């Protein structure tokens, strides 16, 4: 394996690279790699895992997501309600009603297992990431807040041919 | 009496302004070299951030660890600062704009700048911290080793100029027509710049600070205003050594083809421009080179720079006596 | 005992000398858990005499998270999520041998497209890990700008990984039988196929070109620099015999002259379809360890470019039952991680999760040579040697 032997002394080449980069940063013709964060936001990929959104009507409290979560950070409570029968004289149907669906984002590992195993299209990923709080207890997002995230869920994008 | 006070006030003001300018050049230059904008939100596009830093350090709590040697710990930053600020008194901005045009200007400058060594060593020793101690010991070895090439490089200039006063050296360069760096002292110039970088403890010679090993070396236990004094005096040192280098080697406040009656006006501007150019070269070297190991540093001083500077003196003396 | 009255001894007395040694004690320096240069919470208790280091004892365990115990009570998809975090710099390459072990026990054939996607993401994780090494090593030696250049180029690669999998460092993209097929299991989300997104090929080609240019810039900026060469050449020389005796693997072994790369022996990823070189060092000093990793980055970029050009089509996951139970058996799968050899020993008893999982990580064996290498080194050399071993504490302590 050949060692790298430049003709000009190495430290002069280093100085040249540093000065060239400085001129690139100062010239308006080169694109900057920086994002001036609070004033400009970076555009994330649509699949980026920022926050989980819940579609309340689709959820049947089957508990699959709560069981498969590696951290056990989803808390679900539900009860069954009796509905009138579909035809007169038939059996009364029961419907599951969701009481409480909390995701504790202080524990969540953002792995996505819950989104993947849900058989009823109730959980979705969204690339939103700006929900930090001063109080750890506020990181528990309840049903209504998870429903609000649903508007930020992007449409699935096209695939490579 | 008031004249002396005014001069002292101007001195302090000039020192602080010089340090602030060089802080801006160092930090903003570093940011641009690293492809990022640097401090942006403080002032006008971020360029008044040193003022914000100074205010921030002033309002901090003065923390002194319990086991330090208190008087030594408290006075160490003062030695370093005095050794930097006193140099501002001899550098001439023009033949008449100088705080004190001493006959022994160069001698005074080199003697006072060696005082900084005591400050660094006592800072490292008195902090009750093994890492600071190692930083202080490294600093002692480095600063003492690099005093010699610094002095010997300047001796070449003194031989060629026949005077030790800084105004006299610039007048000699005007008489010769070319600054000393072209007129035979190029080796002396390079030795002076390398030794000056080591005296300032900047990368590639910043083993005493050694950020990734010793987290600020001898300055680790200092906080608040004491740390500010170390930090500012490092930039003051950089400014004044670049100014001295441009006076001794690059021609000081003089540029050919400009009328000498207006020298009180364009002299400061010329000197500051030359200082800024040298400062920029030092900044580019700082942000691109790794740092030397302690024994390689000492090798460079004792085995390469001192013999080279002795040969430089010999050649200069022969040229002076013979021609 | 020399007899002073013996006439034969008189001529020897002129050579006698008296040496007075000042009794000094070595200073015990704790290069503590919090330090700018240990890559994490590694503690070294070193006896230092002036600047020479004598006796270094590493103290580990500040970051032990109990992976093997956690794996006893979790299922395979859950463990895949956890295992990403062992070597957090190159997240994807930690999942692969674990999933490959489970697939070997179940005897499933993974479709080709899934294998190629896995290979592309593994090589991207390798590039990302080597960028971190390049930047951080230059920072420890004293050069303060290359880390910024490294992080900028690494952002492009991380953005690519994010556009495919959704996560930059912890992709969690492997499933038993292939890669993640769809976004969910419901009627509409099942149709949201998690294949390579539109624009991936174009962005990857740009990113890999920039990686090759960045490696060139590193060679110019640091590799040819005389100060860097003085700091790293002939420092921390590791002979091949000691390296093999201590179980060192990965780029450190290759820098010592042993041409051993586990990528030629992995059958669960199609490395034999591509042409790539295996860079080998000569002396085994810090400079060679740095050089080998820069060259490996370029080779990985070339592999990714070849893989994109020849990507087969097909399903993303093989047919697996809904509830996956791995049959009884035990297997050991090894892989070439960016840091060295990583292996998983899975003992399964037919349940939803393994009965016992043992993780063999690269960095744990790699830092076992530290007491040997650091004998008699100067303190700055200690930093240079530790940096060149490129370990991560999550990998050491699991």
Number of helices of chain B: 12
Structural class per helix/strand content of chain C? alpha+beta
Main sheet overview of chain B: none
Span between N and C termini of chain B?
47 Å
Strand residues, percent of chain B: under 5%
Low-confidence stretches of chain C: none
Uncertain ranges of chain B: none
Helical percentage of chain B = 55-70%
Q: Give the number of DSSP strands of chain B.
A: 0
Oligomer: heterotrimer
Please sum up the structure shown.
The complex is a heterotrimer of chains A (161), B (323) and C (398). Chain A contains four helices and five strands.
Question: How is this fold's topology laid out?
Answer:
The complex is a heterotrimer of chains A (161), B (323) and C (398).
Chain A: H1 10-26, E1 51-54, H2 64-68, E2 74-83, E3 93-104, H3 113-117, E4 123-126, E5 140-141, H4 143-148
Antiparallel strand pairs in A: 1-4, 2-3, 3-5
Chain B: H1 2-33, H2 49-58, H3 70-85, H4 105-113, H5 116-126, H6 130-161, H7 166-176, H8 186-199, H9 211-214, H10 225-248, H11 263-286, H12 294-322
Helix pairs in contact in B: 1-10, 1-11, 3-5, 3-10, 5-6, 6-8, 6-12, 8-10, 8-12, 10-11
Chain C: H1 10-13, E1 27-31, E2 43-49, E3 52-59, H2 67-70, H3 76-83, H4 92-106, H5 112-141, H6 146-165, E4 174-175, E5 178-179, H7 200-223, H8 226-232, H9 240-246, H10 251-255, H11 286-309, E6 329-337, E7 340-348, E8 356-360, H12 362-366, H13 370-373, H14 379-389, H15 393-397
Antiparallel strand pairs in C: 1-2, 2-3, 4-5, 6-7, 7-8
Helix pairs in contact in C: 3-4, 5-6, 5-11, 5-14, 6-7, 7-11, 11-14
């Amino acid at each position: 394996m050949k060692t790298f032997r430049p003709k000009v002394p190495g430290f002069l080449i280093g100085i040249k690279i540093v000065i060239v980069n400085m001129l690139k940063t100062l010239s308006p013709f080169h694109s900057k790699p920086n994002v001036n964060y609070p004033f400009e936001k970076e555009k994330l990929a649509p699949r980026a895992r920022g926050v989980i959104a819940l579609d309340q009507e689709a959820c049947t409290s089957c508990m699959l997501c709560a069981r498969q979560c590696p951290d056990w950070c989803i808390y679900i409570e539900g009860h069954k309600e009796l509905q009138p029968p579909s035809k007169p004289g038939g059996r009364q149907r029961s419907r599951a009603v969701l009481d409480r669906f909390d995701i504790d984002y202080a524990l969540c590992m953002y792995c996505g297992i819950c989104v993947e195993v849900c058989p009823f299209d109730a959980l979705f990923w969204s690339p939103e990431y700006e929900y930090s709080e001063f109080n750890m207890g506020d990181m528990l997002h309840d049903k209504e807040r998870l429903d609000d995230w649903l508007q930020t869920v992007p449409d699935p994008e096209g695939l490579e041919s | 009496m008031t004249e002396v006070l005014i001069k002292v006030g101007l001195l302090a003001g000039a020192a602080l302004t010089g340090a602030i300018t060089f802080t801006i050049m160092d930090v903003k230059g570093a940011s641009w070299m690293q492809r990022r904008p640097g401090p942006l939100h403080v002032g006008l596009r971020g360029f008044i951030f040193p003022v914000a830093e100074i205010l921030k350090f002033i309002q901090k709590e003065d923390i002194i660890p319990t086991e330090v040697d208190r008087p030594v710990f408290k006075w160490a930053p003062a030695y370093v600062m005095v050794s930097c600020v006193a140099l501002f008194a001899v550098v001439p901005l023009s033949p008449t704009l100088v705080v004190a045009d001493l006959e022994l200007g160069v001698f005074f400058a080199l003697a006072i700048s060696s005082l900084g060594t005591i400050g660094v060593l006592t800072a490292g020793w008195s902090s009750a911290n093994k890492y600071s101690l190692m930083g202080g010991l490294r600093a002692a070895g480095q600063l003492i080793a690099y005093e010699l090439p610094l002095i010997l490089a300047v001796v070449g200039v003194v031989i060629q100029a026949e005077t030790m006063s800084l105004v006299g050296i610039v007048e000699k360069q005007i008489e010769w027509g070319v600054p000393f760096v072209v007129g035979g002292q190029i080796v002396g110039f390079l030795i002076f710049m390398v030794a000056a970088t080591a005296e300032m403890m900047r990368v590639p010679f910043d083993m005493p600070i050694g950020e990734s090993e010793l987290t600020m070396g001898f300055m680790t236990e200092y906080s608040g205003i004491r740390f500010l004094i170390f930090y500012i005096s490092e930039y003051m040192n950089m400014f004044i050594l670049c100014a001295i280098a441009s006076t001794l080697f690059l021609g000081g406040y003089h540029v050919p083809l400009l009328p000498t009656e207006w020298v009180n006006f364009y002299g400061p501007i010329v000197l500051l421009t030359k200082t800024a150019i040298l400062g920029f070269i030092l900044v580019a070297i700082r942000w691109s080179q790794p740092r030397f190991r302690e024994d390689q540093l000492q090798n460079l001083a004792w085995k390469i720079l001192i013999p080279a500077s002795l040969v430089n003196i010999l050649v200069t003396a022969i040229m002076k006596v013979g021609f | 005992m020399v007899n002073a009255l013996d006439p034969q001894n008189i001529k020897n007395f002129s050579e006698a000398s008296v040496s007075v040694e000042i009794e000094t004690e070595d200073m015990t320096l704790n290069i503590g858990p919090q330090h700018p240069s240990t890559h994490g919470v590694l503690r070294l208790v070193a006896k230092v005499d002036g600047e020479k280091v004598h006796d270094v004892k590493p103290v580990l365990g500040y970051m032990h998270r109990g992976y093997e115990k956690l794996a006893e009570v979790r299922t395979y998809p859950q463990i895949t999520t956890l295992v990403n975090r062992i070597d957090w710099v190159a997240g994807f390459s930690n999942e692969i041998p674990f999933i490959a072990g489970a697939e070997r026990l179940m005897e499933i054939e993974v479709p080709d497209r899934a294998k190629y996607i896995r290979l592309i993401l593994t090589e991207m994780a390798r590039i990302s890990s080597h960028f971190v090494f390049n930047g951080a090593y230059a920072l420890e030696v004293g050069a303060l700008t290359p880390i910024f250049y490294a992080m900028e180029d690494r952002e492009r690669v991380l953005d690519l990984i994010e556009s495919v999998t959704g996560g930059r460092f912890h992709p969690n993209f492997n499933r038993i039988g292939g890669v993640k097929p769809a976004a969910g299991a419901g009627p509409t989300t099942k149709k949201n196929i998690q294949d390579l997104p539109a624009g991936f090929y174009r962005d990857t080609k740009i990113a890999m070109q920039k990686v090759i240019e960045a490696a060139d810039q590193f060679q110019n900026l640091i590799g040819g620099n005389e100060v860097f060469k003085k700091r790293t050449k002939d420092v921390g020389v590791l002979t091949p015999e000691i390296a093999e005796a201590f179980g060192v693997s990965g780029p450190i072994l290759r820098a010592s002259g042993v041409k051993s790369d586990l990528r030629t022996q992995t059958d669960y990823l199609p490395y034999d379809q591509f042409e790539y070189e295996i860079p080998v060092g000569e002396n085994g000093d810090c400079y060679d360890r740095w050089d080998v990793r820069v060259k490996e980055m370029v080779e990985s970029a070339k592999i990714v470019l070849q893989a994109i050009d020849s990507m087969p089509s097909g399903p993303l996951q093989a047919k697996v039952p809904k509830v996956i139970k791995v049959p009884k058996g035990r297997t050991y799968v090894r892989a070439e991680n960016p840091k060295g050899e990583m292996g998983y020993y899975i003992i399964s008893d037919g349940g939803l999760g393994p009965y016992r999982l043992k993780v063999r990580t690269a960095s744990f064996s790699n830092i076992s040579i530290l007491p040997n290498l650091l004998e008699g080194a100067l303190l700055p050399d200690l930093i240079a040697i530790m940096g060149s071993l490129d370990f991560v504490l999550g990998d050491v302590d699991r």
